[in-house]
């Protein structure tokens, strides 16, 4: 751990596991709490909590929700919202920890938890800066922000009292999962990346290769200075309807779990996840170069990983994320890596093809290999 990490994240002398009733994140300013109707963005921590609980309420597996104190991030107390889903299986398997992607929250794994809980305890967390976790201001330096996230995850693991874990991350969560595996391999039994963002290096000749029009370059030169989801907050009261119109496909992926007339709760949940102080979004923005690539991509860094820890990667065959083959990983000294290409799946593999996703992940945590 470098000196900058110690200075930016420090443990407070306060309880580590805190009941939901004692903390409510993200916190609202005194002005908004006193004048709830004078708000441009129609959201609150209570509404975010309610939409999450509505989605989780459709699951058969009961859960225990609590906050985990992981210390301070840049002098801001950081509490990680956590749900534990306990398995009925008496076999003591290594627990599965699930981390969502940019702009999401733990409830997006609703199609997976009941099945995965058949084999081990499942912990689903909201990454700091997102959904119901605290919104500390991460460093604007991408390498420091990445390290802050990794230390937060390690402090979370220690606070919950887990020895080894199976760590799964989707998209940006996959990037952070990979970073954690480079720093704390001894705590991992398996690494599972789901359509991970930030693996490949940005092509040097991208503009020439894709013949990017001048107007697209001009637009991007402006929007690159803003957080990726700033538009949802900028439109204020129209935000919830905008999410429903933009992502009706994502809502309907949950129609086997949620009745049709209530599918809008998925869009409402995503809106409330992103309606508050966007500190996690800002951290992601600091790490990206063009929204599809990371400033410090993972592929060249995989030679540094502990190759004794198996890594499983699931790509959606129709995703915008560029899939990397096992041979390409081998070329970068990425060993002990299994790659699955999931048919008829886009970026949200866990929802697009939930049954296939659940089967692959179950095989991994049960040490079954195809």
Keywords:
single chain; 370 residues; alpha/beta; Rossmann fold; 10-stranded mixed sheet; 36% helix; globular; disordered N terminus
Could you please say which CATH topology applies here?
Answer: Rossmann fold
User: How many helical elements?
Assistant: 16
CATH architecture: 3-Layer(aba) Sandwich
Main pleated sheet = 10 strands, mixed
| Spans of at least 5 consecutive residues with low confidence | 1-8, 30-38, 210-226
- If you average the pLDDT, what whole number results? 86
What fraction strand?
Answer: 15-25%
For the record, the count of structural domains works out to 1
Helix content: 25-40%
Give the SSE order as H and E letters. Answer: HEEHHEEEHEHEHEHHHHHHHEHEHH
CATH class: Alpha Beta
Count of extended strands? 10
Outline type:
globular
User: CA-to-CA gap between the ends?
Assistant: 38 Å
Q: Kindly report the name of the CATH homologous superfamily.
A: Alpha/Beta hydrolase fold, catalytic domain
How would you describe this protein?
This protein is α/β, with parallel strands linked by helices. It has one domain: Alpha/Beta hydrolase fold, catalytic domain (Rossmann fold), CATH 3.40.50.1820. It is built from 16 helices and 10 strands. Strands 1, 2, 3, 4, 5, 6, 7, 8, 9 and 10 form a 10-stranded mixed beta sheet that branches. The longest helix has 19 residues. It is globular, with a radius of gyration of 20 Å. The N terminus is likely disordered.
